[in-house]
Specification:
The protein is of the alpha/beta class. The protein has 32 helices and 14 strands. A hairpin with a 2-residue loop joins strand 1 and strand 2. Helix 1 packs parallel to helix 6 and helix 10 packs antiparallel against helix 11. The two termini are 47 Å apart.
Length: 862
């Protein structure tokens, strides 16, 4: 079955998202750096060597041609030269040789450029492959090690510690061959002119070849020690931050600082030792390199004086000897790097090794093939004789639960109950006991099969930095495979790369149905209302949204809503919008995320300068910066400014600093500050009557300048895709002064959407939102986790202390309908919450647990 996995075939198969490029055990503890490079890039290395071979004859020609030019074209007399069928005079022959030399130099350098680019690209692929291999190791870490490891330390090892390897690995095979080839070319040319000069040129090579590796061995040890101490220091800093409360309450800050100083001092001592060794080696090399020219010039001059060597040959030999320093130095550096980077590679590999890694086939094997694969379905068996560490002495007598059972867990500390839930979901493995589904132990089941069969919802479900729809589809990843393109840009591509529009629509419909049942639809709608519509969505929903906008504006005109919204009016300033929005009275560039991005548009910048609006913005910005400076000076370090909505502390300090160095260039900076000013949000300054009138005059001028197809002004009828859907429907902005009544507006908008039959369509837009995590409540996150778990049709659903009593009561029958035949295991907050279960697992204070039939009658759906 291994042959089915694309990253296990060929070379350089690394780096596509969701597609590991290298099996972990191919990196960890079984291969050296050179072996890794060859296995992963042998085709590229052979190509690099072949390209290197093309450079060698050109290099020799660049040595031979200058000698010929001096000895023959210049010093060979004026007689004609017969070159094949051509007869050339002295000047023509000189120009031909010079042209040939130029072509050789140009071609050789073009080939070297391509060679270096190829080496760099190969190094990047190898570094990516190495990191993917290490990431595969992390995914195979046993649960106990994952609890011990700090995420920041793993990130540093995966990214920072191996970063220098990328520049070395690409040429680890080609570099010595290429540099040695050049060295042989130069040395061969020198020997061809004079054996004695050749011997003088290479006289110091044996001494350097023996001495440099000897000195480098200590540098390798020091580099290893530096990396170890740097890692210890990083762990110390992480521990200090995590335990800052204990440190302060025990008055141990001084001790912490002293210990940190000691660790940093130890790193500094290693660095100093490294510097001394490094520059000592460099000095030795420089001295030895300079001895060769001294011997060379003395001997070469004597040979010319004695008539045994032509002056042209001596000049060419001088050039060859000078060029030899480059490849020889590169070879010595390469030897140093072999020691250094080989040590880094081994050190990094060891840090990702583990004697108890989860089997590769279990972690990465497909759900439908292999000895560990196959569906998990059938009765659930729980027996815990000795639980994993941290489970508060949990033990459970053997119990078997039939498909479709609803099982409540009562009692026990959070540690014991949580450990039981984790064991049932396959997240933890009891030290002694059995957890199986359909007769198959979860601890040995393929994770893809386990992921397809078991749904788990914890108190804080993970929220990916992707769209909300992708978060809900996360539970279907166990069934997916990358498509032929091998580039998995979205979760949809992984789950079903060949799915057509009908399948995608069916999956979206399923998510919306589940979201509605889980109570997630209002959150989807709320997120969608904060989004901008695409042009296509605006065209699609235009008739319905126009009708909805009219009814909402009628609603907002009622007494209960009259002062809640600040409407857009052409003859008035909207205090809830920025000054730039008030000036433009539109958002001309939908791609611009904020005022700064809008100001960066050449078209907008020209219009602002031409109408004088930029100067107006700069005046507002200077006035605001002056207010900021006064507050900064009053607050000392400006800490009081941190609470100002919409402004970062650093922005305010920078604004105050601008006042100390005014210049024409800073006018744009002041304009950027003024553009962000929102009258209702920023009470430090206020627009006077003259400024208001000037703003309205500038608005009219800018409207004429910007009026063109595709620009939607705020007071025009229709659907404006440049505004958020919420603002477009309201025809204005909610007033900050009435924040306590915002829920009333939200309810009115969502009620109107339901009345118009648009709630599901708008919820679909909400599925595409990003960056929504901070806008969701803890219960909404749990609803996302529940939809994610139910979307895959689990055979076992584990609810680990999620939802309150009322929420669970609302969902219990629906969950049975959403996952028919599934076993549902949930933590019950009290006896009342467990009365609808078929079975109850009671955990005593001692950690002993037993399962028995529930005492209360079970409610059925409908």
């Amino acid at each position: 079955m291994r042959a089915e996995w694309p990253w296990r075939r060929g070379e350089d198969r690394a780096g596509t998202p969701g597609q590991p490029g290298l099996r972990g055990e191919a990196v960890i503890g079984q291969v050296s750096l050179l072996r890794f490079v060859w296995v992963r890039s042998w085709r590229s290395q052979i190509g690099i060597l072949a390209l290197s071979a093309l450079i060698f004859p050109l290099t020799y020609a660049t040595l031979e041609l200058p000698k010929t030019i001096i000895n023959d074209a210049i010093g060979g007399g004026p007689g004609p030269r017969q070159i094949g069928p051509f007869t050339l005079d002295q000047l023509s022959w000189l120009l031909v040789l010079a042209g040939a030399l130029f072509l050789c130099v140009l071609t050789a350098n073009l080939l070297k450029w391509r060679l270096n680019v190829w080496i760099g690209e190969t190094g990047d692929r190898l570094l990516r492959s190495l990191r993917v291999g290490f990431l595969a190791q992390i995914l195979r870490f046993p649960a106990a090690r994952l609890k011990r490891e700090r995420p920041g330390d793993l990130v540093q090892r995966l990214m920072g510690e191996v970063e220098p390897l990328g520049g070395f690995m690409g040429g680890v095979i080609a570099t010595p061959v290429f540099e040695a080839g050049l060295l042989l070319i130069y040395a061969g040319f020198v020997f061809a002119q004079s054996v004695w000069l050749g011997l003088a040129t290479i006289a110091m090579f044996p001494l350097q070849a023996w001495l440099v590796p000897l000195l480098q061995a200590r540098i390798v040890e020091l580099n290893r020690l530096r990396a170890r101490r740097a890692r210890e220091t990083a762990e110390f800093v992480s521990e200090t931050v995590e335990q800052i409360g204990e440190t302060r309450v025990n008055g141990a800050s001084g001790w912490r600082l002293s210990e940190g100083q000691g660790k940093l001092r130890a790193i500094g001592a290693v660095r100093e030792a490294l510097l001394r060794r490094k520059y000592f080696i460099k000095g030795v090399n420089n001295v030895l390199n300079q001895l060769s020219p001294v011997m060379f010039y003395a001997l070469g001059g004597w040979l010319v004086i004695d008539g045994q060597l032509e002056i042209g040959s001596l000049v060419a030999v001088v050039a060859a000897q000078r060029e030899m320093a480059g490849p020889w130095k590169a070879l010595l550096t390469f030897v140093q790097h072999v020691y250094d980077f080989g040590s880094r590679f081994a050190f990094a590999s060891q840090s990702f090794a583990d004697a108890e890694l989860v089997a590769d086939e279990r972690v990465f094997g497909p759900a439908d093939a292999g000895p560990l694969a196959g569906p998990l379905a059938g009765p659930l068996v729980l027996e815990i004789q000795e639980a994993a560490p941290g489970a508060d002495a949990l033990s459970l007598a053997r119990a078997e639960f039939a498909p479709g059972s609803r099982i409540a867990v009562l009692g026990g500390s959070d540690g014991a109950a949580g450990a039981l839930m984790a064991a049932a979901a396959g997240l933890e493995v009891p030290l002694r006991g059995e957890v199986s589904l359909g007769g198959r132990a979860l601890e040995s089941a393929n994770l893809a099969a386990l992921g397809a069969a078991v749904g788990y919802v914890g108190q804080e479900p993970a929220i990916l930095s992707r769209t909300l729809e992708e978060n809900l589809l996360f539970g279907l990843l166990s069934t997916g495979r990358p498509g032929q393109a091998g580039d998995v840009r979205t979760l949809r591509d992984w789950i079903d790369p060949d799915a057509g529009p009908e399948a995608a629509e069916a999956r979206t419909a399923l998510l919306l149905d589940l979201a509605d049942g889980a109570g997630l639809t209002p959150d989807l709608v709320r997120l969608a209302l904060g989004c901008r519509l695409t042009e296509e969505q605006a065209r699609l929903f235009r008739p319905a949204l126009l009708s909805l906008r009219g009814s909402l504006q009628d609603t907002m005109a009622e007494a209960a809503y009259r002062d809640l919204v600040e409407p857009w009016r052409i003859g008035a300033v909207n205090a809830e919008a920025s000054i730039l929005e008030n000036l433009l009275f539109c958002w001309p560039d939908r791609e611009a995320a904020d005022e700064a991005a809008l100001l960066a548009s050449p078209k907008i910048a020209r219009a602002l300068r031409r109408t004088g609006a930029e100067r107006f913005l700069a005046e507002i910005g200077r006035e605001l910066a002056t207010a900021f400076r006064e507050v900064v000076e009053a607050a000392g370090d400006g800490a009081a400014l941190q609470g100002l909505e919409g402004w970062r502390h650093g922005d305010l300090l920078m604004a105050a600093e601008l006042l100390q160095r005014p210049s024409r260039a800073d006018r744009r900076a002041f304009a950027a500050i003024g553009a962000r000013f929102v009258p209702a949000r920023d009470p430090l300054i206020a627009l006077d009557m003259a400024q208001t009138e000037r703003l309205l005059d500038l608005r009219a001028a800018l409207r004429d300048a910007l009026d063109e197809p595709g620009v939607h002004f705020f007071d025009t009828d229709g659907v404006d895709p440049s505004q958020s859907l919420f603002d477009g429907l309201l025809g204005g902005r909610r007033r900050r002064s009435r924040r306590v009544a915002w829920d009333r507006i939200d309810d009115a908008v969502q009620g109107a959407l339901r009345t118009e039959g648009l709630e599901r369509a708008i919820a679909t837009i909400g599925l595409g939102t990003r960056g929504f995590a901070e806008a969701l409540s803890a219960v909404a996150r749990q609803r996302i986790g529940l939809v994610r778990a139910l979307a895959k049709g689990p055979r076992l659903l584990v609810l680990d202390h999620v939802f309150g009593r009322a929420e669970h009561a609302r969902l219990r029958d629906w969950m049975m309908d959403a996952a028919p035949g599934a076993i549902i295991l949930y933590a019950a907050v009290d006896e009342a919450a467990a009365e609808d279960a078929d079975m109850v697992i009671r955990i005593e204070a001692t950690g002993e647990a037993a399962a028995h039939p529930a005492s209360g009658p079970r409610r059925t759906s409908g």
